């Protein structure tokens, strides 16, 4: 499986990091070794001094496809979850300054915490959107709504499939809303869709 991530898919998040809003989806990949599953702990990596959290809605691809039209994209995922894209912000900043790829800041071991997946119909609110949030030490630090994404789920699947064949089991991180912040040893994170807790992660 592969993890496909979307950067700057919420305008307010792009602004908080002083980044321009992309005209097209900004994509990067994480390998399967980046997975952090079953509410496992994250050991603070020794190569960074500025580790950040970014909560996101996740889509799990349920069948293979490429060159998918947006109108058919909904057939390629049945389950959603929440995840945390852990980012070595100091390293990412240095990579950007030098015009280098971001992988060493984004794609290291266990940098992608993945929550429990639920049927996509169960995740929607009464307006048909997905509300999600992240608590840090029992305090809400991020809240998002899928309708505020710059590029929608279906458009993302269609766009991604023009470049990468989507395979059953692949996971898409669809972007983070504003409110990203720093991680400290001992922090406990809990991520929700609506009121349902789908992910916990302790920093050690």
Question: Globular, elongated, flat, extended or rod-shaped: what is the shape?
Answer: globular
> How many beta-strand elements?
15
Q: Helical percent range? A: 10-25%
Beta-strand portion reads 25-35%
Residue runs with pLDDT of under 50 for 5 or more positions = none
Task: Describe the structure in your own words.
Strand 14 (188-193) and strand 15 form a beta hairpin. With 204 residues, the chain is α+β, with helices and mostly antiparallel strands. The radius of gyration is 16 Å and the shape is globular. The chain has a single domain (3-202), classed as Fumarylacetoacetate hydrolase, domain 2, CATH 3.90.850. The protein has 5 helices and 15 strands. The relative contact order is 0.29. It is 16% helix and 34% strand. It has helices at 11-16, 89-98, 103-106, 120-123, 153-161, and strands at residues 3-7, 26-30, 35-36, 51-53, 55-61, 77-85, 87-88, 112-114, 118-119, 131-136, 139-145, 171-173, 181-182, 188-193, 196-202. The mean pLDDT is 95. Strands 1, 2, 3, 5, 6, 8, 9 and 12 form an 8-stranded mixed β-sheet that branches. It has a 4-stranded antiparallel β-sheet with strand order 11-10-14-15, with no helix packed on it. The longest helix is centred in the middle third of the chain and has 10 residues, at 89-98.
Tell me briefly what this model is.
This protein has helices at residues 11-16, 89-98, 103-106, 120-123, 153-161; strands spanning 3-7, 26-30, 35-36, 51-53, 55-61, 77-85, 87-88, 112-114, 118-119, 131-136, 139-145, 171-173, 181-182, 188-193, 196-202.
